[in-house]
Design a protein that fits this description.
The chain is an alpha/beta fold. The chain has a single domain, classed as Flavin prenyltransferase-like (Rossmann fold), CATH 3.40.50. It has helices at residues 16-25, 44-51, 67-74, 85-93, 99-106, 121-125, 127-138, 164-172, and strands at 2-7, 29-34, 77-83, 112-117, 142-143, 147-150, 156-160. The chain has a five-stranded parallel β-sheet, sandwiched between helices. A hairpin with a 5-residue loop joins strand 6 (147-150) and strand 7. Helix 1 packs parallel to helix 8 (164-172), helix 3 (67-74) packs across helix 5 and helix 4 packs across helix 7. The radius of gyration is 15 Å and the shape is globular. It binds flavin mononucleotide (FMN).
């Protein structure tokens, strides 16, 4: 499948080059689209090297094209990993204020959409975050649940992004 990997600004972004490699090993072609904050936590160069394609991050390219439409048409599946609290909220509300959220709206409804939330356990436990997750689920988004563990913030709890291997498996399920 042609898989578009969306990367938002969670610490688990550092695992996404591994995720790209896992998706490619499973036979998928992968392109990456990241938020500006995502690219503070993983380098565009690393993602380009493992995916074989430049990373899309800028809605306003100077080429006069429309990267959100091109990528949305290209994708047969979209996976957002990690999905931050902020990304989940924006997607739930239908905001389109950067390349990633705009292309989430631009993909056709028949394209499968998966999201792997990842955040501090207090954030994950907030009612407003759970409401956004429930709204997304209600619209057909497949949520790949975060797991329990020692989080990057030092807390123990639920909020860690699912393992890259589990995300690859979820796509095939
Ligand atoms: C080092 C660092 C790690 C972060 N990790 C997370 C995270 O795992 N999950 C999350 O929801 N927000 C996390 N944040 C906060 C987000 O980066 C912030 O909410 C940002 O607005 C998200 O933007 P984006 O969703 O457009 O990428 C982190 C911030 C910093 C500085």
């Amino acid at each position: 499948m042609r898989v578009l990997l969306g990367i938002s600004g969670g610490i688990a972004a550092y695992k996404t080059p591994d995720l790209v490699r896992g998706l490619r090993r499973a036979g998928h072609e992968v392109r990456c689209a990241a938020t500006a904050n995502g690219l503070r936590l993983v380098s565009a160069e690393a993602l380009a090297a493992v995916s074989g394609h430049p990373v899309a991050a800028d809605l306003w390219s100077d080429r006069g094209d429309m990267p959100h439409i091109d990528l949305a048409r290209w994708a047969e599946a979209v996976v957002v990993a990690p999905a931050t609290a902020d990304l989940l909220a924006r997607a739930s509300l239908g905001l389109a204020d950067d390349l990633l959220t705009t292309l989430l709206l631009a993909v056709e409804d028949r394209v499968g959409l998966w999201m792997a939330p990842a955040m501090n356990s207090q954030m994950w436990g907030k009612a407003i975050v759970q409401q956004h997750v429930a709204a997304l689920r209600g619209r057909g988004v497949r949520i790949i649940e975060p797991v329990a563990g020692l989080l990057a913030c030092g807390e123990q709890g639920v909020g860690a992004m699912a393992d890259p291997a589990a995300i690859v498996a979820a796509l095939g399920a």
